[in-house]
Amino acid sequence: GQQVMQIPQYQHVQEGEDFTTYCNSSTTLSNIQWYKQRPGGHPVFLIQLVKSGEVKKQKRLTFQFGEAKKNSSLHITATQTTDVGTYFCAGSSGSARQLTFGSGTQLTVLP
Amino acid sequence: EAGVTQSPTHLIKTRGQQATLRCSPISGHTSVYWYQQALGLGLQFLLWYDEGEERNRGNFPPRFSGRQFPNYSSELNVNALELEDSALYLCASSLLSDEQFFGPGTRLTVL
Questions:
Q1: Which of helix, strand or coil describes residue A1?
Q2: pLDDT tens sequence across B51-66
Q3: What is the pLDDT of residue B109?
């Protein structure tokens, strides 16, 4: 079945440093979504990418979808303490509406 | 607009007992997904219901089951509870966009 791998598992950064998490799928994806889960909270949808090579920005967050639609990345510029949490990618294939979640990257931002 | 709701918030059971968890999706959403999130780990897909039918299930034993009611709310049942079933159980709902909206979860503790 489809597998989605995400690295790194943990990342500690100083406030103001940049952060990137990477997501790789074993199969071609029809779309990829990113979610953020704050400590003690539930996952919250951030964005969806659909097109090959697509790049989307949300303030300090930049999301990319690879040309082959098998990988994606989330980059945060100048991290803030409010960025703390676990970031998950999640992909679906074909016409399936079911998502396969990556294992997540837990981000810690040190003040 | 009310979000996804789950009940109970916390549930404590002993080994061998049965647990029932409930989820109410966002109004108008026909799909409900169940995930298991063990402490510090990622989201493991359990079950997907859409329009009252089970569409897919993850790699979990048959003692994990559920159903979706005509009003699209859903129930997850876990029979013969084991210690390793202790986890946060998250429910999510979606419509056609594939974006999933998560509830706050039910924390199940098996003693």
A1: coil
A2: 999 999 999 999 999 9
A3: 97
